[in-house]
Structure formats: structure tokens, C-alpha cells
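Sample A.
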Amino acid sequence: MLATSNPKSAVLTAKRNGGSAGQSHAGSNEGTVYHVRPGQTGKLIDIERFSLWYGLSQAIFDVTMGVERGLVTALIGPSGCGKSTVLRSLNRMNDLIDGVRISGFIRFDEIDIYSPDLDVIGLRKRMGMVFQKPNPFPMSIADNVAYPLKVDGIRDRHIVAETVERALKQSALWDEVRDRLKASALGLSGGQQQRLCIARAIAADPEVLLMDEPCSALDPIATARIEELIDLLRGQYTIVIVTHNMQQAARVSDNTAFMYLGKLIEYGDTERIFTNPINPQTSDYVTGRFG
């Protein structure tokens, strides 16, 4: 069973099976350490003993964690540790890769997202995705933001205009583009393009925002704007962010999950992860001894 989040002082340990029988993995330990900061309304996403394989290669080993509703959860760890794979499993983006298979469960709002009869398109509408590099469509700024509505067949001009304005305001971009909504989105700066992509995700009215290293291609000023935006969106959405930047995780997240070699090593309150982690591997990583 998935460990239930307790107050900050609590520490829970869940045993893991360590992968397939007969295999050994460097850096493995006896269990994941939990000290999760609870949200006010409980968990929105439950991941239970989740494993994933690309063909014969296992990438994720028995990950169990809950994502608290309305909070920002960061996934950190060295390259290849599985954090982006976990993120993309939440909206089944990994389905697009040949040879992927999974075991275990991921439940979103108590619904098994890997159920054979699940509407995957409907799931992805409830989980907005922001990728590593900005990917605006070659169309106007307004049409980029309105795209999810048009896909859903919404053509009412007043609804579209109101949604575009709301999403651009929520993404802290409205004041910069309000006078050029019909201009090409490709003419925006990299940081503006990434905020536009966030606005496009917000326009679909999701419950969750998944961010896969959203600042890795941005300069420090644009990165700061994205981090300010994440703080503004906290509470309105449940946000899961993958980042290589530990300082960024410390600044923007409420809870942080440290992964290593496909395993969840420690998951809990961000302040504790970075100031007083329990697992020695976590301490070694956040203090720069490896990674």
C-alpha cells in the first residue's frame, strides 16, 4: 500500500523489491525514505510500486509516492536516473515509445490511468505538459493559446478571447503581448515562448501542470520569470517539475523526490531534503559529492 503522508516530522520507510530477481544495482538501499509535506486536500496522484521497461532494459524500479494536490513537487537526480520517465508516465506520454511496458499502478484522482478503458486523450487534457525547449506553433500568439479550445470545437469568439486573456495573465505574459496578439509566436524571445507554452497548457483548464526541465534552455533572467510564475500558479494547479538545477528545486518546490538509477531514494519536504536529508545518498547528491 502507498505510504500515507504524515506531518513534516514523520519519517516513513517503504520496502522496495530492488528490481528483477538476480539483478544488483549500484546505489540501491533497503527502502525509500519519506517525510512528505502534506497538502491541505490530500493527494491527487498516487504512484504505487511502479516499474517501467524499455524493451528488456528496466528504467524504473518499484517507485511509490503520492503527489500532493495544489503543491509543487520537484523530481531531481543525475542524468538517466528516471525522473523524466516518471513524469511522462503520469500522462502516458511513454505510450508513444515502442516496447514500453509497466507494472504497478498510477492513480489520478483515484482513477487507474493505465486501465484499458481509460480515455488517454481525456487524461492528457487534465494534465498540461511543458517541455524542455519552448515549442510554440507557427501561428499567432492568440491562436497558440486558443489552440486547445479549437481542438475541443469551441469557436465562440467571446469565450476564446476571454480564455486567451486569462491564460496570458496567469502566465505573466499579457502585459508584454496584449498589443500584438496577432503577431507570430515565433517572434517572441525564448523565455516569452516558454511562458506562452505555459499559457497554452493553462488554456485547456488542466488540474496538473507537468514541467520537464522548463528552464534548461533559458537564460538566468528568463529562468527567474518562470520560477516566479510557478510560485504564482502554486495552489491553483498541482505542479510536478523535473529539474537538473538543485537550487531551482529548492526555490520553487514544496516537496522533492530524489531519484538514482531508476529508484526513489528519498521523498519529502524540500527544506529538509536540502538541509537535513535522512538518506546518505541524498546528502551526497545535494552537497555535490556526485551527480
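Sample B.
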Amino acid sequence: MTGCSFLKPENFQIEKGLKKQMKIYLASASPRRKEILKQVGISFKVVPSTVEEHVTSTEPHKVVEELSYQKAVDVCGKLSETKDEDFVVIGADTVVACWGEILGKPKDKQDATDMLQKLSGQSHQVYTGVTIAWKYKGTPAMFHTFHECTDVTMYSVSEEDIEAYVSSLEPMDKAGAYALQGGYAKHIQGICGDYYNVVGLPIGRLYQELKKRNLLS
């Protein structure tokens, strides 16, 4: 990516105790991710990635890590060309996996219906990959990527309930065609893991990763 060079974190040490003012950019237009960051008081600006996504793996955790990394690299490159400042970029991607099949955002109502029927009465996994890119003036950018996985179990859902939910159009921009924090919450039997990971951003883990790298002002 033009304007965004690479450096492994272990090759670049920040002086202990030094606190830099880092501007944070979210490489996503997701309203849910924006709400989560605002909820915990992290100040940020939105610069959505426009990169053409390319996946080389079929394993869910690797897929979300790849996509989050591509988004972070894309926005990091753009900012490096236009900003003369210290900054952090957060890239994220979420998918649902059921019996090894990755379920992204539905293409249409029929696709959403098929996904929800597949998930009905089953346990599945929600994976979110996150990449943090950070760059100080005059130095190469550094990157750290991780993922979180949450198990979600659904009650059996009737065809009538699925049809009504799909008609609401809420599923159409959601991985797996449902929102845990939305109208489909009544069909969730339980979760094991990070709730916010299912919503789209594992904020607890993200906060810890930012904090230990001294990236929060």
C-alpha cells in the first residue's frame, strides 16, 4: 500500500512512560462499532475502508483477521499520504460460522431466510477479527491482529417468525442475518463469550491491546 510501510512491533520500542497524543480512526462505517467505541468513551473519527476484499483462507478466524488487516492497511495508507500526525487505525470484520460454513451478510431476503433457518435451534460461532495499525511521524506503521470467538445458541424459530423478521429488513446488513442487540434477541437461548464481539467489536480485548501499547491518551 502506497505511503504505508511495515514494521514488526518488537522492532520498535516506545520509551517507557512516554505518552503520545494519538488520533484514532475507525476503518468502518458500521453504526454498531461506532456506538461501542462511543459507549466506552474512546474518541475517534470514521474513515471507511474502500479496499477490494480478498480472502485466501476458508477458516473463519483467518478470514476475519485477513479482512480486518486489509481494511487497516488501506486506511493507514490513505492517512499516511494526507496526515502529518501520530495516529491509530482500527480495522474489524465479523462473520458467523455454522457447521464450518461462513455466513456473511445476506445478498437478499431469500438468502437471509436461508441463513436464519440454518441457525434455528443450533449453536454457532461469531468471529470478529481486529487489526490495530499505529504510526508515529517519521516512522513506519506497525500492525497487530487478533480475533475473538463467541458461541451463540438459538431456540428453534418458526417459519412465521423468520419471515416477519426478514420483512423488517433488519437482517440485511448483518453477518448471519441477525442482530443480537435487535429484534432477534428474543430467539437467543444463550451466549458463551464476549457479547460485544457478536455485535461487531470485542471492545474489552481491543481496549487492553490499545492500552498495553500505550496508544490511548
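B remarks: Helices lie at 31-39, 60-82, 109-119, 159-167, 195-199, 203-212. The CA atoms of residues 111 and 177 lie 9 Å apart.
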